[in-house]
Protein 1
Amino acid sequence: VQLQASGGGLVQAGGSLRLSCAVSGNIVRINIMAWYRHPPGKQRELVATSTAGGSTNYPDSMKGRFTISRDNTKNTVYLQMDSLKPEDTAVYYCNVQHCSGYGCLTYWGQGTLVTVSS
């Protein structure tokens, strides 16, 4: 299973970006899909999660400006980011839980850099 994230870049404060993460390989069942971010000098933090059943969850600090969605036909998860702030600058990583007859494993994408200028 491989994850390919894209969509990062440089944006001015107040702008928007949409990240994508496509999952490929010998896919059986994707359960949870999530986005994390790693701001410079800080710890990695959860941005949003999406379950196979369609439920989404956001930490309180991420509610309001971030929207996670997924297209199960394309095995792709998206992160719509609006009203971006300089403190949103980070490397954003997608994360999926893939389940097969051998159990469930977690996979990470390579990260995509988002830079928000003031």
Protein 2
Amino acid sequence: QVQLVESGGGLVQPGGSARLSCAASGIRFAGNTMGWYRQAPGKQRELVAEGTSGGSTNYADSVNGRFIISRDNGKNTMYLQMNSLKPEDTAVYYCSVRVLGGIFWGQGTQVTVSS
């Protein structure tokens, strides 16, 4: 059974930083495409950052240069380092693993950027 568990969300001041973690069981990040998505109230879920098995990364224009996606294969955990956070980054953040035929999701973690 595949399980993805996010952690690290919370309240952050504008300009601050936070790191999200996603621990996986039942699946390996290595060899698969991993990703972070977010969904703000009233909006569709959107891709924030993606990392392929080959090591390439892609970022949404809105976070490029501020967010970094990474993984620790030994811990089977992926991360999203978020810097220079803005109020518009407020959303529920979901980690994902894409495999042939489908995608697995975590339960989501709330990130609120506010003073």
Protein 3
Amino acid sequence: QVQLDESGGGLVQAGGSLRLSCVASGRSFGGYYIGWFRQTPGKEREFVARIIWNSGSTYYADTVKGRFVISRDNAENMVNLQMNNLKPEDTALYYCATKTGAISQYDSWGQGTQVTVSS
């Protein structure tokens, strides 16, 4: 498993932007799929976006497509989630997670970073 740490959450007004970051301790992201998920109290965790580190291939949930961008920073061994045009319904605890292949399960999770969007 990989130790993951998220940062960058905060309070922002609707229409604003935030940039979340996920770093891995102790090893490179090389070979991993890195995903961002979010969860609000009483709801199931929701997939947001993912990137395949080696290829840079990305995939987004329809709810964030066109507003969020997931990217990798090879030098910093970091995955970023740029969130633009934020909406109140984007309010959630955001987690990054890793898995080793397309059909495997995400098995390493960070502690999460809170994003709150005010209307």
